[in-house]
Amino acid sequence: MSGLTPRQLKLLECIDRFIEQNGHSPSYVEMGQMIGLASTSGIHRLVLALKDRGFLSNLPYRRRTIEIRRLPSERAPALPVRSELEQMPTLGLTKLMLSVQAELNRRAAA
After folding, report:
1. pLDDT beyond 90 at 80
2. Percent of all residues in the chain with a pLDDT value above 70, rounded to a whole number
3. Is the separation of the CB atoms in 5 and 68 below 8 Å?
4. How confident is the model at residue 60 (pLDDT cuts 50, 70, 90)?
5. Residue 106 and residue 110: Cα distance in Å, rounded?
6. Rounded to an integer, what is the distance from CA 19 to the centroid of its chain?
């Protein structure tokens, strides 16, 4: 058992699906809409709980940098951690950089 609540599991699955489709993580408002929760502070608490349990990570003080570290064991095997170079923060993302990042995410998921 993963030890996740049903709402945490639903959020984790929604984030995973969103990243796969869009190449970047959803905003807290988008996450709330996906799981039917209007409070962004409630989403923040769910994200913190998932980070504490090792399912999510992100770059601090940066938007849309949430990434899936692993999925619950009964769902899928652990995903590889991004390389050190990929984890380095970038300043001033351009559309080209976003498309490169989306391609890296797609290859990592494959």
Report:
1. no
2. 74
3. no
4. confident
5. 6
6. 7
Query: Residue for token digits 């989306």?
Result: 102
All residues at 6 or more sequence positions from 104 whose CB lies less than 8 Å from its CB, including other chains: 86
Q: How many domains does the chain have?
A: 1
Q: How many whole angstroms separate alpha carbon 7 and alpha carbon 92?
A: 34
Does this model's pTM top 0.70? Answer: no
CA distances in angstroms from 87 to 8, 21, 59, 82, listed in the order given: 24, 21, 8, 6
Structural domain boundaries, residue 74: 6-109
CATH of the domain at 47: 1.10.10.10
